[in-house]
Amino acid sequence: MIDGQGRTIDYIRISVTDRCNMRCVYCMPEDGVAKTSHHDILNFEEILRLAGLFSRLGVRKIKLTGGEPLCRLGLEELVSGLAAVPGIDCVTLTTNGTGLASRAQALRQAGLAAVNISLDTLDLVLYETITRRPWLDKALEGLEAARAAGLPVKVNCVPLLPQQKLWDVAELARDRAEAVRFIEMMPIGLGKEFSGPGQEAVAAVLEQRFGPLTPVSERLGNGPAVYYALPGFRGRIGFISAVSHRFCESCNRVRLTAEGYLIRCLQYDDGTDLRALLRKGASDAVLLEAMAGEIAAKPEGHHFAAEAGAPDGAADETRRMDQIGG
Ligand code: SAM
Ligand code: SF4
Q1: Using 50, 70 and 90 to split pLDDT, how confident is the model at 306?
Q2: Which of 68, 98, 188 to mutate to test the pocket of ligand 2 (most atoms within 8 A of CB)?
Q3: Alpha-carbon distance 258 to 277, whole Å?
Q4: CA 92 to CA 94: how far, in whole Å?
Q5: Is the CB of residue 138 below 6 angstroms from any atom belonging to ligand 2?
Q6: Strand pairing partners for 41?
Q7: Kind and range of the H or E run holding 50
Q8: Nearest bound ligand to CA 28?
Q9: DSSP string over 209-274
Q10: C-alpha 292 – ligand 2 centre gap (Å)
């Protein structure tokens, strides 16, 4: 579907849980969060019904996210159902990887097309500092399991601390045709308390170590990353720089929270409570109208740079990233 700004919206990020087994400092509070009850989270039947309707509106790609999506029991069953929805071309997952070792094979068999694994550092101590969990080994086992299962892998890294040794993370792309992407810290939720280095600073660190980054024109996946080659690297280095290289004009997505709230844009609360409609017995036509209305009303873009907050009296985002799904 084409939104009110002329952009094609063919991608949805579906959060399947707001629970997480980690507590990344820029994403979730140390003490955890009030648990949303199972009843308040969309069940698989509801998610599949909505996916079918989104497909009718032109959505072709689904990314499952969270919280930590592997915390949702039976995720394999959901993947298999979503992959079978007519019109849906690919179902992918973004995960911290710590639960992937025992499940990568089954997810692949269920129809998962690819996986993004979040790995902010390969330094054991710093990994625990950032995630508040001593589980770097588990995440790396998950990465290996995904590869062994034949799942295309991308690594996502959010730079935030000087000691992070970003070059070590970049090295994951040296011998494999896999991308490592550096995601700029966004001032959303707890991310407002951090200011990581921007794209140019990260690029400078990598170039000093490995040589010049050369832009490549190929598109890898469905998102806003821009990719570069490094001398001697089989894989690509990507940057997703929402703050320093705003890409709202090419935004192709909407987001569905675990509670069934359809969000137009990461930085706005505006949206529609699809769960309420579903549970009131809304017809497909009513749901489609609500969904299409949200897509049509997608704002022009975020306003990270505006101190005054959301323009035109729109409602600024109040959710944390673990609730939105990134
Ligand atoms: N738990 C899964 C994971 O970590 O990949 C999926 C959910 S997580 C919210 C999705 C992505 O959002 C992760 O790569 C995480 O690093 C990123 N993220 C969280 N807060 C962020 C922020 N303020 N700015 C940029 N990226 C953020
Ligand atoms: Fe959990 Fe992912 Fe947020 Fe880390 S970034 S706390 S793994 S949801």
Answers
A1: low
A2: 68
A3: 15
A4: 7
A5: no
A6: none
A7: helix 44-56
A8: 2
A9: HH---EE-----SSSS-EEEE-TT-SS-EEEE-TTTS--GGG--EEEE-TT-EEESSTTB--EEEH
A10: 30
Whether pTM exceeds 0.85: yes
* Residue 104, CA distances (Å) to 63, 98, 112, 316 in order: 16, 11, 9, 37
What is the set of domains in the chain, with CATH numbers? 11-154+250-324 (3.20.20.70)
Q: Is the CB of 319 under 6 A from ligand 2?
A: no
The amino acid that residue 217 corresponds to is S
| C-alpha to C-alpha distance for 148 and 170, rounded to whole angstroms | 20
- Relative to the alpha carbon of 320, which ligand is closest? 1
166-200 pLDDT, tens per residue? 999 999 999 999 999 999 999 888 999 998 899 99
| pLDDT tens digits for range 42-64 | 999 999 999 999 999 999 999 99
